[in-house]
């Protein structure tokens, strides 16, 4: 057998394994969805059978429906468990595609709760998506460590572009160790913040100075990590020197608030109330963006007092006219941590705010002006 034919067989086997792993994972997710859909139909059926008052009555639950619905629901759950076991028997693969990141953003908390194989844990990666150890991250770090934290439905992949690569090269020349965080963006922000806090505590034994740079939701995760560290007196918080937030919805994202309002309209009558379950499928991470919530309880959390902070906002207007929609997803006031009520604005000992025109939300990741501002801010 020739070397080329052997390589072809190995490639084919790898492709089959990848297909098998995604197939079983998607089957598991589809069966969970079928179980939820059956419960939705069951509660709707039971509500119609009860005939409540259109404006004052209560909708029925799935348990009020005929027993056949319970049997079908449990059958789907049993098949979902079987698909998860089949997945566990296939060889593991360390791959992460855009679909993987997106499904974690939309349904990440559900994936984690049900042990779905598509759920991705938190880890440090290099620019090629390979997991890096603490030792490799710190190997050439003379000045300190930098972590880039991505936003909703994204991964370390979206950071990789020409301008970002130039910025990273300069960081390394200055003596910084650089890594990118990968995490499940569908989980609650305070949960991801707690995990990041623990990760930083464990992976920085040399107590090197830290710089955290987050895009969109990533900035909220950074703040949640700092909040967790302060509550539990973690040592890494003492090493935090810089924290930057690119298009982070500190005061919330209007689109998520609009989605929540639309979902609440379904609750006005018992006949449509069961369909609120569909809107409720939005992950905890997405729902936290509604108000920029970073703590388990919804009280305001200020910026870490011991670090310098850079808040960057983009807007779609030109130099003379600011677009009210901000960068298309996050308003300027929200990204800059400002509020019409002064007591609700973000406060800190050392805060720099920068605003750039003609700049959309995703373009923040590859705009030369953004990286120039970051480098200028990082220099002593």
Notable features of this structure?
single chain, 380 residues, alpha/beta, Rossmann fold, 2 domains, 7 strands, globular
Could you characterize the architecture of this molecule?
- The chain has 380 residues and is α/β, with parallel strands linked by helices.
- It has two domains: 3-93, no CATH class; 123-254 and 285-378, Rossmann fold, CATH 3.40.50.
- It is 44% helix and 11% strand.
- It is built from twelve helices and seven strands.
- The chain has helices spanning 3-50, 67-88, 98-113, 134-138, 162-173, 189-203, 217-231, 254-265, 276-279, 284-288, 332-335, 368-378, and strands spanning 123-125, 144-149, 176-182, 210-215, 240-246, 308-314, 351-356.
- The chain has a seven-stranded mixed β-sheet, with helices on both faces.
- Helix 1 (3-50) packs antiparallel against helix 2 (67-88), helix 5 runs parallel beside helix 12 (368-378) and helix 6 (189-203) packs across helix 7 (217-231).
- The radius of gyration is 23 Å and the shape is globular.
- The termini are far apart.
State the CATH topology of the largest domain.
Answer: Rossmann fold
Q: Which CATH C-level class of the largest domain is it? A: Alpha Beta
CATH architecture designation of the largest domain = 3-Layer(aba) Sandwich
- Helix amount: 40-55%
With strands numbered from the N-terminus, the spatial order across the biggest sheet is: 1-3-2-4-5-6-7
Shape: globular
Which ranges are low-confidence, i.e. pLDDT below 50, for 5 or more consecutive residues? 6-18
Strand segment count: 7
């Amino acid at each position: 057998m020739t070397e080329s034919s052997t390589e072809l067989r190995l490639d084919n086997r790898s492709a089959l394994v990848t297909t098998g792993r995604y197939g079983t994972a998607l089957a598991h997710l589809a069966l969970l969805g079928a179980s939820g859909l059956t419960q939705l139909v069951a509660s709707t059926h039971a509500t119609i059978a009860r005939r409540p008052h259109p404006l004052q009555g209560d909708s029925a639950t799935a348990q009020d429906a005929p027993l056949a619905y319970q049997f079908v629901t449990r059958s789907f759950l049993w098949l979902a468990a079987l698909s998860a076991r089949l997945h566990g028997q296939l060889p593991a693969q360390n791959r992460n595609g855009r679909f993987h990141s997106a499904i974690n953003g939309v349904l990440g908390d559900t994936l984690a709760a049900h042990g779905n194989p598509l759920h991705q844990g938190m880890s440090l990666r290099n620019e090629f998506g390979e997991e890096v150890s603490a030792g490799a991250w710190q190997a050439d770090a003379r000045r300190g460590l930098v972590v880039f934290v991505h936003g909703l439905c994204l991964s370390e992949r979206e950071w990789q572009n020409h301008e970002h690569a130039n910025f990273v090269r300069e960081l390394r020349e200055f003596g910084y160790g650089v890594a990118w965080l990968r995490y499940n963006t569908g989980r609650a922000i305070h949960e991801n913040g707690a995990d990041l806090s623990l990760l930083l505590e464990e992976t920085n034994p040399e107590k090197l100075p830290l710089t955290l740079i987050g895009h969109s939701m990533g900035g909220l995760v950074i703040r949640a990590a700092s909040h967790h560290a302060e509550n539990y007196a973690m040592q890494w918080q003492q090493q935090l020197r810089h924290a930057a937030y690119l298009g982070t919805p500190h005061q919330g994202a209007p689109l998520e608030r609009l989605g929540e309002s639309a979902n609440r309209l379904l609750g006005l009558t018992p006949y449509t109330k069961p369909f609120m379950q569909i809107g409720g499928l939005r992950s905890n991470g997405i729902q936290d963006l509604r108000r920029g919530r970073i703590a388990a309880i919804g009280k305001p959390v200020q910026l870490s007092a011991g670090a310098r902070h850079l808040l960057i906002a983009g807007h779609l207007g030109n130099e003379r006219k600011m677009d009210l929609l901000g960068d298309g997803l996050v308003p300027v006031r929200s990204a800059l941590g400002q509020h019409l009520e002064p007591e609700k604005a973000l406060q800190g000992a050392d805060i720099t705010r920068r605003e750039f025109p003609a700049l959309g939300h995703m373009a923040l990741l590859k705009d030369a002006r953004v990286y120039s501002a970051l480098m200028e801010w990082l220099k002593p």
